[in-house]
Amino acid sequence: xIRCHRWxxxxxxxxxxxxxxxxxxxxxxxxxxxxxxxxxxxPRAIAQLKTAVGYDPSDVEAVTRLxxxxxGADLAWEAKVLLDRFPADAKxxxxxxxxxxxxxxxxxxxxxxxxxxxxxxxxxxxxxxxVEAAVEAWxxxxxxxxxxPDLPGAWxxxxxGECLEGQDPDLAAQWLRTVPGDSSQEEKLSERVLAAVLxxxxxxLSDSVVALAGIGDTANKALTLRxxxxxxxxxxELHRVEERFLADYPGHSAWSEVALAKAWRSLRAxxxxxxxxxxxxxxxxxxxxxxxxxxxxxxxxxxGREGEARKALELALALDPTNVTARRALLGQEQEPGAIRxxxxxRGANLENR
Length: 354
Hints:
The protein is an all-alpha fold and about 350 residues long. Among the domains are: about 140-250; about 255-354, Tetratricopeptide repeat domain (Serine Threonine Protein Phosphatase 5, Tetratricopeptide repeat, Alpha Horseshoe), CATH 1.25.40.10. The protein is built from 20 helices and no strands. The longest helix is centred in the first third of the chain and has 18 residues, at about 1-20. It is rod-shaped. The N and C termini lie far apart (about 110 Å).
């Protein structure tokens, strides 16, 4: 009796299934697979989806769902084979193509994945997780810009960030130099890359770093490069960077500091006219600042304009009676090395470096 009852139920189910339309049948199988997957029963979910694929091997939804579950069950290779066997004339949607691209990337077939990704990106269908997987793979294999000349700018920026995360600032610099356009994200990354390259570079300043510093021309980048050049005693390049900074960023908070450092350097290099000119500009910005008055006074004295020099030095001493440089200059001791060492050291410019 029980056996007959079971057979009866089985026949009812078969008849019910036969009465379903193909779309309803697929929907029922998808629902059963989803329920099994949520319950952690991946083998049952796979079985249901394989049944769905068996009904229609060209059903992109069924194939994609099955591939995703196979990947979740650590059967990525089987998922790849499934997608590779998908009928060539069947319709493929963006979800399917993103999944196929991720699988190709996973198995190191980046050259095959790239055309798919570029096509997806062209119509706005590239999934961020797919792009991220590609970026990580490219960085892992240390791919250089020459290998992938057609990558979108946003992907190149992502490559720069990934290179920085992977502690490879040199590769990050290479990619950043190929980024088209000018954006705030590019500026921030370029500053990070420059700082990372400079910190990791134990040799003399390289051409790549100088070129990198020119990307975007931000003030902060110029200041970072300036500190590096000063620490390496690369005075000729430092002169160029400071000249450009002073010309491009007259309103920057560090403008006076850079101008005064350059003024001291000009004074020690025997160019009092340049020193006076820079000191006068700083003094015009801050009339109560002592240091530009001292520099101007010393520069005027070097030029033989003693009366003007004394006025500038006396004003500096009146503003700051403790200023050793101004006091010694007025006493005729400005030629003593100790007289200006304090001011030079304040600007990171000791005498030995001049």
